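Hey, I was hoping to borrow your eyes for a little while. I've been puzzling over a protein and I'd love to understand its fold better. The fold is given in discrete form, as structure tokens running alongside the sequence. I'd be grateful if you could look everything over and explain what you see. No rush at all, and the record is pasted right below.
>
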Amino acid sequence: MPLSSRLPRWIRGPWLWLESFGIGFLGRCGLAPVTARQLIRFVTVGVFAAIVYVGIMALMIDGLGTGVLVAAFFAFVIGTAASFLGNALWSFEARPTADRAAMFFAINTTGLCLNMLIAWLMERAGIHYLLISLTVLIVVPMFNFAGHRIFTFGGRAK
């Protein structure tokens, strides 16, 4: 049973409408429906993982009194795990295996390196940090999506 069909009716109806609208819009931009659905779900899972990350940071720093670096480490690990599971089970409808988890981490780490390279190059070119941030927020998630779609989950591998 797909994950979307297990949502409560009051969430499922609006979600299916929004997803359908997004697939139609992205289809007009040239994306195949399967790719558009995966991209929409990938972005949704990314937002959820970001909320998990911030929540873990707050819990560890404000609730447990840990330092920022310790909290950031655990927030990254837990947020990445949430992202992997959400993308495996929902975005790409694939089994979450250890091999896929390793590839997921490798692609995310490569995305981090790309993030740093873009920021370094653009800073050297004298570009304002907000434009650097915008560039990174567009390029790196698209890189990660393509990498996960091709390598981690092999397209629509089950």
In short: The longest helix spans residues 33-63.
